[in-house]
Amino acid sequence: MKATIAELPKYVDKEVKLGAWIANKRSSGKIAFLQLRDGSGFVQGVIVKSDVEEEVFQTAKTITQESSVYVTGTVQKDERSPFGYELLVTNVELIHTSTDYPITPKEHGTEFLMDNRHLWLRSKRQHAVMKVRNEIIRATYEFFNENGFSKVDPPILTGSAPEGTTELFATKYFDEDAYLSQSGQLYMEAAAMALGKVFSFGPTFRAEKSKTRRHLIEFWMIEPEMAFVEFEENLEVQEQYVSYVVQSALKNCQLELKTLGRDVSILEKITAPFPRISYDDAITFLHEKGFDDIEWGDDFGSPHETAIAESFDKPVFITHYPTKIKPFYMQPHPEREDVVLCADLIAPEGYGEIIGGSERIHDMELLSKRVEEHQLDPETYKWYLELRKYGSVPHSGFGLGLERTVAWITGVEHVRETIPFPRLLNRLYP
Fold first, then answer.
1. Whose CA is closest to 134, among 269, 214, 40?
2. Mean pLDDT for the chain?
3. In this structure, are residues 132 and 257 in contact, taking their beta carbons and an 8 Å threshold?
4. Residues 90 and 126 in one domain
């Protein structure tokens, strides 16, 4: 019976055949232990010399790290194993011998591991992170599909920028200027006017020269947009969505979170509703905490967000930021022109902002005024303005950064480990 490692619990006391790689091994004169991986998981294969042919045992003793094999054996329960099972091996067929594999079972520097990212992905820790990432993506589709959203794919090449062009990658689109998208939001607004509730999931690009543990040049965003949804309801959707993916990861990635040493008791508290603090109150709070460098009208940096988040055991919404530090499309507060109907969702434990969202301006006259104030080209944004000309409605949306969310849920310190092939300020290889 051919099986994967993930399927082994179904075959206790039965013989199976696995295609696998040798993650590690150790042996004595009478017994050999092979750490096997096949992409679906990791399992230990045990070979007892007296139970197999001499040739099989010699293969097991001399096989090298990351060699590929077919392994035949009987599945057994093993309470000592994190996986809960092991394989009593009866045969090993060598497919390919790996020679001088560079990532050995010892400490390696970060730059070395990043240079070998194509191989580093095979490690148990990186495998666990990628499996949690996959679960978050799976749960994302499930949540939005179950709540009546349609998936829409906005373009990656655009002629305009939602938040200005200073941090965009420019390219030539034949004889025109074009940019790699920093957000699909404007296009998702158009889609929401056609389909009601929509979401996108795709790569976005920021030419921001930042080296912090929270920043990537290329990252993935989930961007829902909803017609007839105002500010408060938008926040409710966000907290329901984040709660959903966290609980899904807890349910379906127990082994991976254990491999990563994640304190799941922290994640178990992540259920809606989430606390909220206004920007005004956040400024007062920071002054009380000794942050004299921040004034009303300034944007928050990492230390400020972390200080606020530390007062809560769940993600916290910071709401109603000053108009002047937010993008042109955000709806003003009905009673205050100096702040807008927006919120950033700050993750606990120092992981920073994972969601930015707002109610969008739906009045064409006001949006035209904002385009002018931000010195944007009205012709470039003509199609966007027309969304307010033909049946405009109140609408809201948000964007969740996948890699920061993966980092927070897994407890990984740096976002470079939460994407298969990170693009950083100093890294385009591999």
1. 40
2. 96
3. yes
4. no
What's the confidence (pLDDT) of residue 20? 98
> How far, in Å, CA of 352 to CA of 349, rounded?
8
Contact (CB, 8 A) for 411 and 263: yes
CATH number at residue 48: 2.40.50.140
At residue 20, φ and ψ (nearest 5 deg) are: -155, 170
How far is residue 326 CA from its own chain's centroid? 24
For the chain, how many structural domains are there in total?
A: 2
Quick check: 164 pLDDT over 80? no
More confident residue, 167 or 183: 183
Structure-token match 């006259």, residue found: 365
CA distance 391 to 372: 22
How many beta carbons lie within 10 A of that of residue 125, not counting itself? 15
CATH number at residue 171: 3.30.930.10
Same domain, 47 and 163: no
| 108, part of any domain | no
Q: For 310-347, what is each residue's pLDDT tens digit?
A: 999 999 999 999 999 999 999 999 999 999 999 999 99
Domain that holds residue 66: 5-96
Are 103 and 120 contacting, i.e. CB atoms less than 8 angstroms apart?
A: yes
The predicted pLDDT at position 160 comes to 75
Burial 18-35 (b: 16+ CB within 10 A, else e): bbbbbbbbebeeeebbbb
- Partners of 224 in the β-ladder: 199
Question: Order of strands across the sheet with 176-180?
Answer: 157-158, 176-180, 170-173
> In the 8-state DSSP scheme, what is residue 357?
E
- Phi/psi at 98 (nearest 5 deg)? -90, 130
Whether residues 261 and 408 share a domain: the answer is yes
Say if residues 179 and 157 touch (Cβ distance below 8 Å).
Answer: yes
- pTM value is 0.97
Instruction: Determine contact, residues 374/328, Cβ cutoff 8 Å.
Output: yes
Please indicate, yes or no, whether residues 179 and 293 belong to a single structural domain of this protein: yes
Q: Are residues 154 and 38 in the same domain?
A: no
